[in-house]
Amino acid sequence: MAIFAQRGVHGSEAATQLRSIMRNMTTPTANTTRAWEMLGTTLFNADGSMRNLDDVLGDIRSGMANLNDEQRAFVTQNLAGSYGQVGFNALLASDGIEAMVETMEGQTSASEVAEARMSNVSGGD
User: Fold this and answer.
1) pTM of the model
2) CB–CB of 24/32 below 8 Å?
3) For 88-105, what is each residue's pLDDT tens digit?
């Protein structure tokens, strides 16, 4: 959701777009299957378990680099759906989910900020 928020997609809108993306990526239609084939990758491992989403997004980025504009539009439409395209493009443009988690973990927590402000207001400890 943080990646979506960076691109101006917030709250329920972000959640709905993510749901659209995941639903489309996992729906075994002829067009979705063709989109995965065009990218040379898949969402699932051979045993049927879902692959790491960062790895999948990396494969999608690589596969899209080899496509023309029409093919990229086809892949985006079929893997993200009409409603999820903005979020899909946000995920592809990001440095990845793990990078966002690392960035967020390195940030000062709200309680730390509040504690520092209260300490300054009261003249320190």
Assistant:
1) 0.69
2) yes
3) 888 888 754 444 444 445
Integer Cα distance of 71 and 69 in angstroms: 5
Give the chain's count of helices (H) and strands (E).
Answer: 7, 0
Cα–Cα distance, 76 to 74 (Å, whole number): 6
Whose CA is closest to 61, among 93, 99, 22? 93
Q: Block means of pLDDT (10 residues each) for the chain, length 125 residues?
A: 59 78 94 97 96 93 95 96 86 61 49 64 57
Helix (H) or strand (E) holding 50: none
Collapse the DSSP code of 10 into the 3-class scheme (helix H, G, I; strand E, B; otherwise coil) and give the result: coil
Q: ∠ CA(42), CA(46), CA(47), 5° rounding?
A: 125
How many Å separate Cα 11 from the centre of its chain? 14
For 59, 65, 89, 101, the CA distances from 72, given in Å and listed in that order, are: 14, 9, 11, 28
CA distance 79 to 82: 9
